[in-house]
Design goal:
single chain, about 750 residues, mainly beta, Methylamine Dehydrogenase, Chain H, Immunoglobulin-like, 8-stranded antiparallel sheet, 4-stranded antiparallel sheet, about 50% strand
Length: about 750
């Protein structure tokens, strides 16, 4: 309740600034898992759990429809085109989107979605004149296609339980309704369809027993009922088996082409089910296509082909069988468990752990490439579930069970497994290597977090000269299940465990071969932490560590104090007030050090220091597919944020300050700079991707670093060794990456 109230307050007080902070929203989704199709004479319209698309037969082109483009019901389950050439999209959440093809605009019908029913999905549309008959999870609704107003809705059919799912409707002079609980037929002469007594109900078939009715239609004057146990004709309550060839099949769809009738059905196989399409002339079966993936709809005899909507895309079928699957270029699944962007702007996403994993995807800004064990035999698994980019341009993907995959800048792949590294798998299976996280330190060494390592060496290091080091758990608490790694500016490793509400740290002090000087410890409630499960870590441009928990965000400052290994010198812990009571799942730091925070309630943007809430987004005011945000990533060069959700990947551009074209306005503040109490000096007026060197007045280098990418950078007043500099005059030198454009300014430090 508190989270709901908080979100409402955010909408009230911050709604006027949303558009200024996030724009150019886009959605990328796999549209292979189809739920509906419709043919308009020129194009096939297809609906999926990732939106919808139009496939034009003449040129094989695709036009995609997503929430970012105005389609609000992202999981499309029904499609029809009315007499005014408007396209109706029904969705799993009850939203009906009506697309005006002439204007390219959408109108939205929310009555069913807002009905309060626990299940409100749209299962089917049927058009009769200017009336759209809507089959829903709880009944039938009639809508005027011209005005978009409801005529009527009815939810109780005879003794069938109220709010029973309706699969399909047929209408001539009367209504025929196929429900999960029986077949309902409007009685002759009745007009009040809200009266349960206005319906004759058939819940069983003699010699067959109770059945679920999936389909009701008519063919050449014969009424047909498709059930979960075959197809039957019926007349005045008498049911007759249509064909033994369809016996015990679940009949789902009917289509007509010329004198032929097409029936789509499911049938059981060991371990699951498959679909088939049977073709009849009258009651005689003339051909069939079997062993199809789960199929939900069909369009027969289109340019000598049959098209079917399936879980494997839009199938193109001839007399022999499937000739191909048609689908827009897209990621191979709507699972995004880890997101990273390489130095060239290519997005990589992991797809999930365990059997849900589909390998990984790459998006170059124009097209998607999917990698799995079939397309890429070098891959040892499809279960990649986290992704990261290192400063050398490599992308690393951690897997659930088969180690680590490196994608080099040239695109070549290098698997790291138990076979070619010293890494050891989980305690119960040494060959099952789970890589929870990968990060690079300031020297270019690769650090690998090995989940539940059987040798207890959960933290592993691969040096730039290809030397491996493993570091055992030194906390004495029997933990090996670590995850969520960050490495700060002093090369201290920070990580968490799902088994304890603590933040752990470790430093080998730059001497991996000598463990005698190593420092390790943990921060918990005794140090000011909120004692909640830690879900996210992010190191910001100031060198502060942002910690996302089940109850908000905490900021850890003065991280270098842990290197003193003193009981009195501890990092400082503060709480971000605007994010209290929120379950934090992901944190992204943008080029100007603001924080984009993904929660169960939506997306928050807070100021660099966390004191100000800048913006808030959820499903009501943005193209987000759901309020829950589980994973995020960013492209700092382009100012893009990426969000992975069930149903697709979302991106938008941010309004972070753009870099200057020259250094003519370069300056620092405050002046003089007093590096105390965690204060930072701001460097403003930088060009894109500046290199910065701080010199003392004698010209000796004090500190060097690179800007975040935008106009602004920050310095904490410490030298390259982590020590606070002395009072004096210093010189700041800023240059581009090639050193062709250089500017110098003086500033003072007072301690």
């Amino acid at each position: 309740m508190l989270k709901t109230i908080f979100a409402l307050l955010l909408m009230i007080f911050t709604g006027n600034i949303f558009a200024q902070e996030a724009y150019d929203w886009r959605i990328y989704s796999n549209k292979k898992n189809l739920s509906a199709i419709h043919f308009d004479g020129v194009s096939i319209w297809a609906g999926s759990d990732g939106g919808a698309y139009r496939f034009t037969l003449q040129d094989s082109s695709f036009t995609e429809f997503t929430k970012a483009a105005g389609l609000n019901g992202s999981a499309v389950t029904a499609i029809i085109i009315d007499n005014q050439n408007k396209v109706w999209f029904g969705s799993k959440n009850g939203i009906i989107d009506v697309y005006e093809q002439e204007t390219g605009t959408f109108k939205r019908i929310m009555a069913i979605s807002n009905s309060g029913k626990p299940q409100k999905g749209i299962n089917n549309f049927v058009l009769y004149g200017d009336t759209v008959v809507v089959s829903t999870d709880f009944g039938v609704s009639l809508i005027n296609s011209k005005t978009l107003n409801f005529y009527d809705s009815f939810i109780k059919f005879g003794n069938i339980a109220a709010n029973t799912k309706v699969n399909s409707v047929y209408r001539d002079s009367r209504f025929y309704v196929a429900t999960q609980g029986g077949l309902a037929v409007q009685k002759v002469g009745t007009t009040n369809l809200n009266d349960p007594e206005a319906w004759d109900v058939y819940q069983s078939i003699p010699s067959v027993g109770t059945v679920s009715f999936q389909l009701v239609t008519a063919d050449n004057g014969i009424y047909l009922a498709g059930t979960n146990k075959g197809l039957y004709s019926f007349n005045n309550g008498v049911f007759t088996l249509f064909s033994a060839d369809l016996n015990n099949k679940t009949i789902k769809k009917f289509a007509k082409a010329g004198s032929n009738s097409y029936f789509l059905s499911d049938y059981s196989i060991p371990g699951g089910s498959r679909s088939s399409i049977d073709v009849f002339n009258g009651t005689t079966k003339i051909k069939s296509v079997t062993d199809l993936p789960t199929t939900v709809d069909l369009i027969p005899e289109l340019n000598s082909f049959l098209y079917a909507a399936s879980t494997e895309g839009l199938l193109k079928i001839n007399d022999v069988g499937i000739t191909g699957a048609i689908q827009p270029n897209a990621p191979s699944a709507n699972i995004f468990s880890g997101i990273t962007v390489d130095l060239n702007g290519n997005l990589y996403s992991a797809s999930g752990r365990d059997v849900s994993g589909k390998g990984f995807y790459k998006y170059d800004g124009n097209s998607w490439t999917n990698y799995d064990v079939v397309s890429t035999p070098l891959l040892p698994t499809n279960a990649y579930y986290n992704a990261s980019t290192t400063p050398d341009g490599s992308v690393y993907l951690g897997s659930y069970g088969r180690g680590l995959l490196r994608i080099k800048p040239d695109g070549s792949l290098i698997p790291y497994t138990t076979q070619n590294t010293p890494l050891v798998g989980i305690s119960t299976d040494p060959s099952f290597l789970v890589v929870a996280a990968v990060k690079s330190d300031s020297k270019g060494n690769l650090w690998i977090l090995n989940f539940d390592a059987g040798n207890r060496k959960t933290l592993n290091m691969l040096t730039t000269d290809s030397t491996w080091y493993g570091f055992e758990n030194s906390f004495g608490i029997g933990l090996t299940n670590y995850s969520t790694l960050e490495i700060d500016q002093n090369d201290v490793k920070w990580f968490t465990t799902p088994l304890r509400n603590s933040l752990f740290y470790y430093s080998e002090k730059g001497t991996p071969a000598n463990t005698a000087d190593d420092i390790s410890g943990q921060l918990n409630e005794s140090n000011g932490m909120n004692g909640q499960k830690i879900n996210a870590l992010a190191l910001d441009k100031r060198g502060d560590l942002w910690v996302g928990t089940d109850l908000g965000v905490q900021i850890i400052t003065s991280l270098s104090t842990v290197l003193q290994n003193s009981s009195t010198a501890k990092p400082r812990v503060s709480t971000v007030f605007s994010l209290r009571q929120q379950r934090i799942n992901s944190i992204v730091v943008d080029p100007v050090n603001r924080k984009w925070v993904g929660t169960d309630a939506g997306l928050f943007l807070v100021s660099s220091d966390g004191t100000s809430l800048i913006a808030f987004y959820d499903v009501t005011n943005s193209p987000l597919l759901a309020n829950e945000i589980t994973i995020m990533g960013s492209d700092p060069k382009e100012g893009k944020i990426f969000i992975g959700q069930t149903g697709g990947l979302i991106s938008f551009k941010t309004q972070a300050p753009s870099p200057n074209t020259d250094y003519s306005n370069l300056y620092t503040y405050p002046s003089p700079f007093r590096p105390s109490n965690g204060s930072m000096m701001t460097i403003d007026g930088l060009i894109k991707e500046s290199d910065i060197i701080i010199l003392d007045i004698a010209g000796n280098k004090v500190k060097s670093f690179s800007s975040p990418g935008g106009r602004v950078a920050n310095w904490d007043g410490r030298d390259d060794n982590g020590n606070v500099v002395s009072t004096g005059v210093y010189i700041l030198v800023a240059s581009d990456k090639e050193g062709n454009t250089v500017s110098k300014i003086k500033f003072s430090v007072v301690r």
